C-alpha cells in the first residue's frame, strides 16, 4: 500500500507508539524491544502490548530491574548489529544507566572513529501531572541535550510520536525518546480542574497505517501567529495553546519535536517575525533546555527582539506530590508571562 | 554544627550504652614500601591437583574451583593433571612468541613515553598470559571486550604493531584519529571492542553482545576483561545478572593482579572471598586460575568458551596474578607497596614458565629464546621508526583539524559545523599562514 492512500485511524499516543514499534519490528528483523515489564505484560503503560506475542520472546522480552544493564546490553547489541529499542520504565529511573549513555553510547562512534556505533533508541515516559511524586514525574531532558553524541526527541501528538519514533529507530546514533506521559491518553491542556478531551477530537491523533517517518531536527508550527513566538515541546505545546486561545493571543507556537538536533532556522524565522519570545518547559528552570534556547534566540535575534525573552518552567525543587499543580508551569504562570510580553 | 570548633565536636560514642562500640574496618595491605614480604598465607596448591568437571556440568559443580587454584605447570616445568590442554609444541612456541612480543612492545612504549613521544602508557608485565593464552583459546572472531591492559589479545590476533604505535602517538596515521588516550585501541576487524577509559562498562556490553549473538543463532561468543579493582563497579553486577538470566554465551575474566593503582585487592573485597566465588551467588560457573601459568589460563578459557558455545551459559574466571609494574606511566609503585612483592611472587613469571616448559619438553632452548627476544626487540624498534614517520604526540603531525568534529553524529549538525568554523578561525588568528592539511 503506498503512503498516499494509507488508511488513517484515530489513535492515542500509546497506540501510536505501539504502532511505530510494530511497523519497525515488522520491517527490520534487527529491531529488538526490551525493558522492565515490556514482554508478556506489554509495559506498565501498555506501549509494547501484543508485541511479544507477535514477534516472540527473542525480540521482545522482560529484563532485570537494572537500568545500567539494560542500556549496557543495548550498547553491546548495537555493536553486534542489532537495533535495540530499550524502554526505561520512567525517565526518573534512567540515572543508573547514565554512564552507559553518556560515556559509552554517546561516544562509541567518535572514540572508535566509526568502527562501532550505538544505533539504539531509549524510550522513556517522562514529565509530571499524574501525581507521580518526585520519582515518577521528572523531565530530565537537559541532562541529555548537554551530552555530545546523543539526540533527544520529544513528541507532542500521536501522529508525531509514530513518525518520530520510526525515525529514531532508523537513526544510526543513540536517541533518547521521551514520551510525555501526561498526554498519552489525551492532549492535556493544563486546566487540571477540567476534564481532558480524548485524542480522538484532536487532529494530531490522525495516524496513517503502516510506515511513515518525520525527520529528526524539523520543528512543527503547531499554530501560526504574529503576536509572539512560543517555543515548547511535549505536553507544554497543548498547555501553551490552550492559554493563548483562552486569552485570545495570536501566538506562533513552535513544537520543537527534537531538541538535539535542533531546528534553529524555524525558531529564528519566527522570532524575527514576531519580535517576542516565550519559552515553556516543565523541567526545572536552572540550566534547563530553555536556558540554551534563550541564549540561542538572543545570539541570533537580538536586534529583532522587542521584549526580554521569557522562560516559563517548573520550579527548581524536586517534583512535589500534593502541591503538584502549584509546581506545574500551568495557565497562570504562562498567562502572566504572556501579559508581560504583550505589554512590552 | 559547622561553626563549632573542632575540639567541641561531639564524639557521638555509644551514648553510654552497655553495648560494645562499633568499629570500622578499613582494609590495609600486608606489606608497604620497605617491608619484607611473606606469602605463606596464599596457600598455593600443587599443580595438577584440581579436578576438571565436564564442560556441560551444573554451574554449582564448579563451586569448589572458585576457591581453589587451577594449575598445570609444576615446579619441574612439566604439564600435569586433568587441566593440561595437551597443546602441541608449535602452538606453545607461538604463544610464547606473542607473550614475548607483548613484553618487548611494552618495554619500548614505556621508554617512548619517558622520552616524551606520547602522554601515557600502561604495561601488562607479568600478566601476559591472562590475555594471550585466553586469546589462543577463543576463536579469532569471538568478540572481546577488553579493559586497558589486554594489548596481548590484539597482538595475538595479528593486529599490526605499527598501528598500535600510531595510536599511542596519536599521529596522523592513527586509525582512531587521535581521539583516544594512548592504548585505548579499537579494531572491529580483529573483533576487539573499542576500549573505554571508564571502568567495567564493557561488562554489560559483552553480555548484550552475547545475547545478540544468541538471538541471531550465531556461533560466536563474547569475552570481557576487568581488573579486580573495577569488579566493584555496579556494571560488573549488572553484567553478571544479565548473563545468568539469559544464559548468555559470554566468558567474564577478572584479572586479579592484586593492585588497583595504589589500592590493594582488599578494597574490592578480597579479604572476604575470592573473586571467582562471586559466580556462585549468581548460579554461574566459576574458575579460579593461576594467571601466570599460560597452560592453565588456556585450559580454563577453553573450558569456558566451549561451555558458552554449546549453550551451557556464562563463566566467570578469576586470573590470580601480579601487576609487576606500576598501574601506568603516571604512578610510582615504590610509594605504596613493597618492592619485594614482585621479586618474591610465588607464581613466577608467565614467559619464563612457558619457556622452561618448552625447554623441558626438548622443544626450545635458551639460545633460541635469546635469538627470538633479539629479533622481537629489533622488530618493535623498526615498527617504532616506521610509526614515527607519521609523527609523535604534539609535533604537529595529527589528523586534519576538522576531524575533531566528525563522528560525534553520523551527520554533522549545524551547531558542530559552526563550531568547526570557529576552530578554523582561531587557528588562522594564531597562525595566519596556516592551511588545513
Compact summary:
Chain A has 344 residues and is an alpha/beta fold.
Give the arrangement of secondary structure elements.
The complex is a heterodimer of chains A (344) and B (437).
Chain A: E1 8-10, H1 13-27, E2 31-35, H2 51-55, E3 60-62, H3 67-80, E4 83-87, H4 98-105, H5 108-111, E5 121-126, H6 141-145, E6 151-153, H7 158-170, E7 175-180, E8 206-208, E9 220-223, E10 228-232, H8 235-247, E11 251-255, E12 258-260, H9 264-274, E13 277-284, H10 289-301, E14 310-314, H11 324-327, H12 331-343
Parallel strand pairs in A: 2-3, 2-4, 5-7, 6-7, 10-11, 10-13, 13-14
Antiparallel strand pairs in A: 1-8, 6-12, 9-11
Helix pairs in contact in A: 1-7, 3-4, 8-12, 9-10
Chain B: H1 89-114, H2 128-137, E1 143-145, H3 151-156, H4 161-169, H5 202-215, E2 222-227, H6 234-245, E3 250-256, E4 259-260, E5 263-264, H7 278-282, E6 285-290, H8 294-309, E7 315-320, H9 340-343, H10 350-360, H11 366-388, H12 414-430
Parallel strand pairs in B: 1-2, 2-3, 3-7, 6-7
Antiparallel strand pairs in B: 4-5
Helix pairs in contact in B: 1-2, 1-10, 1-11, 2-8, 4-11, 5-6
Amino acid at each position: 500500500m503506498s503512503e498516499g492512500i494509507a488508511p488513517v485511524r484515530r489513535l492515542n499516543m500509546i497506540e501510536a507508539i505501539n504502532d511505530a514499534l510494530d511497523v519497525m519490528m515488522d520491517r527490520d528483523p534487527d529491531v529488538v524491544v526490551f525493558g522492565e515489564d515490556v514482554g508478556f505484560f506489554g509495559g506498565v503503560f501498555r506501549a509494547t502490548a501484543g508485541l511479544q506475542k507477535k514477534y516472540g520472546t527473542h525480540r521482545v522480552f522482560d529484563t532485570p530491574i537494572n537500568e545500567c544493564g539494560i542500556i549496557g546490553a543495548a550498547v553491546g547489541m548495537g555493536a553486534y548489529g542489532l537495533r535495540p529499542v530499550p524502554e526505561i520504565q520512567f525517565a526518573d529511573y534512567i540515572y543508573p544507566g547514565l554512564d552507559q549513555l553518556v560515556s559509552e553510547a554517546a561516544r562509541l562512534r567518535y572514540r572508535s572513529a566509526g568502527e562501532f556505533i550505538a544505533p539504539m533508541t531509549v524510550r522513556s515516559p517522562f514529565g509530571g501531572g499524574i501525581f507521580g511524586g518526585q520519582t515518577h514525574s521528572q523531565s530530565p531532558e537537559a541532562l541529555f541535550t548537554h551530552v555530545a553524541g546523543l539526540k533527544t526527541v520529544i513528541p507532542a501528538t500521536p501522529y508525531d510520536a509514530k513518525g518520530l519514533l520510526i525515525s529514531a529507530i532508523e537513526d544510526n546514533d543513540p536517541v533518547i525518546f521521551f514520551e510525555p506521559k501526561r498526554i498519552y491518553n489525551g492532549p492535556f491542556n493544563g486546566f487540571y480542574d477540567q476534564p481532558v478531551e480524548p485524542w480522538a477530537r484532536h487532529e494530531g491523533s490522525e495516524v496513517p497505517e503502516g510506515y511513515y517517518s518525520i525527520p529528526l531536527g524539523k520543528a512543527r508550527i503547531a499554530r501560526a501567529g504574529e503576536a509572539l513566538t512560543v517555543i515548547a515541546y511535549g505536553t507544554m505545546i497543548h498547555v501553551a495553546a490552550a492559554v493563548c486561545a483562552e486569552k485570545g493571543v495570536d501566538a506562533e507556537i513552535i513544537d520543537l519535536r527534537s531538541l538535539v538536533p535542533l531546528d534553529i532556522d524555524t525558531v529564528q524565522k519566527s522570532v524575527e517575525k514576531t519580535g517576542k519570545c516565550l519559552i515553556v518547559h516543565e523541567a526545572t528552570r536552572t540550566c534547563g533546555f530553555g536556558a540554551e534556547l534563550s541564549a540561542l534566540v538572543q545570539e541570533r535575534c537580538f536586534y529583532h527582539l522587542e521584549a526580554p525573552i521569557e522562560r516559563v518552567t517548573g520550579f527548581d525543587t524536586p517534583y512535589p506530590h500534593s502541591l503538584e499543580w502549584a509546581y506545574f508551569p500551568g495557565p497562570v504562570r504562562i498567562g502572566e508571562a504572556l501579559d508581560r510580553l504583550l505589554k512590552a | 554544627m559547622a561553626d563549632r570548633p573542632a575540639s567541641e565536636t561531639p564524639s557521638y560514642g555509644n551514648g553510654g550504652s552497655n553495648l560494645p562500640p562499633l568499629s570500622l574496618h578499613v582494609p590495609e595491605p600486608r606489606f608497604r614500601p620497605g617491608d619484607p614480604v611473606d606469602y605463606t598465607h596464599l596457600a598455593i596448591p600443587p599443580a595438577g591437583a584440581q579436578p576438571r568437571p565436564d564442560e556441560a556440568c551444573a554451574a554449582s559443580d564448579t563451586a569448589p574451583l572458585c576457591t581453589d587454584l587451577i594449575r598445570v605447570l609444576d615446579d619441574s616445568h612439566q604439564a600435569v593433571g586433568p587441566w593440561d590442554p595437551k597443546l602441541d609444541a608449535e602452538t606453545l612456541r607461538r604463544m610464547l612468541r606473542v607473550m614475548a612480543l607483548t613484553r618487548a612492545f611494552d618495554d619500548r612504549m614505556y621508554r617512548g613515553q619517558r622520552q616524551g613521544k606520547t602522554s601515557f602508557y600502561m604495561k601488562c608485565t607479568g600478566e601476559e598470559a591472562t590475555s594471550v593464552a585466553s586469546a589462543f583459546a577463543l576463536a579469532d572472531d569471538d568478540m572481546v571486550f577488553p579493559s586497558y591492559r589486554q594489548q596481548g589479545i590484539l597482538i595475538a590476533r595479528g593486529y599490526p604493531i605499527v598501528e598500535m604505535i600510531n595510536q599511542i602517538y596519536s599521529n596522523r596515521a592513527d586509525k582512531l584519529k587521535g581521539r583516544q588516550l594512548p592504548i585505548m585501541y579499537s579494531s572491529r576487524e580483529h573483533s576487539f571492542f573499542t576500549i573505554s577509559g571508564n571502568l567495567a562498562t564493557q561488562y554489560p556490553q559483552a553480555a548484550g553482545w552475547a545475547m545478540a549473538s544468541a538471538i541471531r543463532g550465531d556461533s560466536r561468543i563474547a569475552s570481557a576483561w576487568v581488573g579486580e579493582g573495577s569488579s566493584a563497579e555496579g556494571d560488573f553486577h549488572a553484567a553478571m545478572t544479565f548473563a545468568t538470566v539469559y544464559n548468555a554465551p559470554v566468558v567474564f575474566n577478572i584479572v586479579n593482579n592484586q593492585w588497583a593503582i595504589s589500592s590493594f585487592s582488599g578494597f574490592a573485597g578480597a579479604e572476604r572471598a575470592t573473586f571467582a566465588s562471586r559466580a556462585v551467588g549468581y548460579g554461574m560457573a566459576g574458575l579460579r586460575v593461576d594467571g601466570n601459568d599460560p597452560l592453565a589460563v588456556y585450559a580454563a578459557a577453553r573450558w569456558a568458551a566451549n561451555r558458552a558455545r554449546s549453550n551451557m551459559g556464562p563463566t566467570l574466571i578469576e586470573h590470580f596474578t601480579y601487576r609487576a609494574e606500576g598501574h601506568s606511566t603516571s604512578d610510582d609503585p615504590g610509594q605504596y607497596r613493597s618492592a619485594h612483592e614482585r621479586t618474591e611472587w610465588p607464581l613466577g613469571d608467565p614467559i619464563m614458565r612457558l619457556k622452561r616448559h618448552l625447554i623441558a619438553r626438548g622443544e626450545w632452548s635458551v639460545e633460541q629464546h635469546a635469538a627470538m627476544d633479539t629479533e622481537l626487540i629489533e622488530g618493535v624498534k623498526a615498527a617504532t621508526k616506521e610509526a614515527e614517520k607519521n609523527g609523535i604526540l604534539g609535533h604537529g603531525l595529527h589528523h586534519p583539524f576538522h576531524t575533531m568534529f566528525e563522528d560525534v553524529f553520523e551527520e554533522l549538525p549545524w551547531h558542530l559545523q559552526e563550531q568547526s568554523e570557529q576552530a578554523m578561525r582561531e587557528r588562522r588568528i594564531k597562525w595566519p599562514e596556516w592551511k588545513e592539511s
